[in-house]
Structure formats: structure tokens, C-alpha cells
Design a protein that fits this description.
Layout lengths: L19 E7 L3 E2 L7 E4 L3 E5 L3 E9 L2 E2 L7 E3 L9 E9 L11 E8 L1
Antiparallel strand pairs: 1-4, 2-3, 3-7, 5-6, 5-8, 8-9
Amino acid sequence: MALGLGLGLPFNNFLGVNPNKPVNTVPPQISGPTGLGSTLSCTTGTWTGNPDFFYYTYQWNRNGVPISGATNNTYVTVLADSLADINCTVAASNCFRLAFDSPYNSGYYSTYFH
């Protein structure tokens, strides 16, 4: 099905842009000191897609479970993290997310802190 926004153009080629899903080519990285109260930082990594400018979201996880409210690129460790696996999931969406917020226009990648 083509959606042309009433302009007689198929959506997948609207204004000469053939959108595709962001794909991670260089994984995000977590850096920072270990220890209680330390600040960890998560990079976006490198992504490709069309169009090639992205919006990023972050989710920090403890043992695979999302940490409530931990949705920035930095995270301050707490006592519960002491023996846990901590990872950061980065989602990249391109500009078509503004019009159609669907998984088609998002890519996801998780990286772990060891």
C-alpha cells in the first residue's frame, strides 16, 4: 500500500527520499569507572540509514530488566548494580519517526558494561 499524503506520490519516495531502517554499524560503548555512585556514559555508536540523521533514545538495564527512569546517555550506579550485568540499549530513529512512529524506522542495539 502506498501512502502519498494526498500529493499523488507514493510515501516510500516522498520528496525523492526512499526511507530505510537505521542499521547499527559500530556498536555503542559504555565507559566510566566501576564502583558505587560512579557515572557510566553510553555512546550512540554509528548508524546508517536513509535519511541519515537520527534521533536517539537510551534505556539502561540491570540483568536484562529496564531500570525505571534510566533513559539518559548517563547512569549513576547504585547498590543494586554491585553484582549485576548493566547494559545500555540505544534506539535510533530517522526523521520519518515524526510522521510514523513505527519499528520500521527504528534500530536497536544493546551494549554491556563489564
